[in-house]
Description:
It contains 8 helices and 18 strands. Helix 3 crosses helix 4 (130-141). The radius of gyration is 28 Å and the shape is elongated. Strand 8 (237-246) and strand 9 (249-256) form a beta hairpin. 37% of the residues are buried. The chain is α+β, with helices and mostly antiparallel strands.
Amino acid sequence: MHSLKRRANSCVISQTINRAVALIVLAALIVLFPLSRGVNTVSADGRGECVMELSTGTVVHSRNALAKMPMASTTKIMTALLIIEDCDLSEVITVPDEAVGVEGSSIYLKKDEVISVKDLVYGLMMRSGNDSAAALAIHHSGSVQKFAECMNARAAEMGARDTNFTNPSGLPDENHYTTASDLCLIACNAMKNEQFKKIVSARNYTGEYRSFVNKNKFLGLVEGANGVKTGYTISAGRCLVSSAEREGMDVVCAVLNCPDMYERSQKLIEQAFSQYELKKIECNRVFMCDIVPCKIANDEVLLIRKGEELKTEIARTNFCDEINVGDEVGQLEIYCQNDLIFKGILYSIVNRRNIF
Length: 356
């Protein structure tokens, strides 16, 4: 009888210990792997990365680049681009009530303050003003919600199909997300706008109503750095879209949920410059298609790995007895390490008869 009680007590103690151990293990797992809810919960190793060469749109590096993640204030890249494309930057506006006291980073707009759209855009990109984002959105579309619809429409035009904006600043929302790939694509499109590029590359700005110092440390970190935008929220982690230009080649990098965002971005951009270079195929270069001298229609820029040789192949496509200037004669193909990297039409630059 006593032995049965001892075994029963032993079982109870053992079960208690097992439950305690299970609870400890469960607690540890929850800490290490938090339950996901929407896109706003990102695991510690869930960073996203994408690096593109701007002029060709070629992706030279990607890591978890298609995962949907929050992007914090890098959202403002799209906000600034829409304002620059659609609004008169010299226009002076009155700050609406909805833009006063917006949570997060701020340029401390005051109710009924008079300020130019240009100053607001500089404050948006150099100081990451959430209040500036709200004022610009309302000026553009009448409301933050309608402006978000415009942001989504513009993203779709660019081909950024895994992106959804719900606000112009990047404040947390489970339906506000992008991917490293989409964000890099959006930034490349924005950096092709000279006004946008001028704003995000500025270290200091003195406007008619406000003056700002750019808080993006990347501008002083890398040779040729010319942008773009930092971002941080607890849910998004540290985010950075960066860009640098050297000898006509512009590399754009997006990192999401990256604790060492400056160091990592620097490494990725330096890696791109060390491994790749641009090769220009000029439209005045003459190619021979059989005995017909030809040219391509426009200058073409190709991105190739340094040290790799290009192989050119020309195929005749026009077998007419008479060829006139401007007629399509053949097709030019350029290969790099057996990979087709360019295909274009060749046009005659002379008149020829009975050539085939």
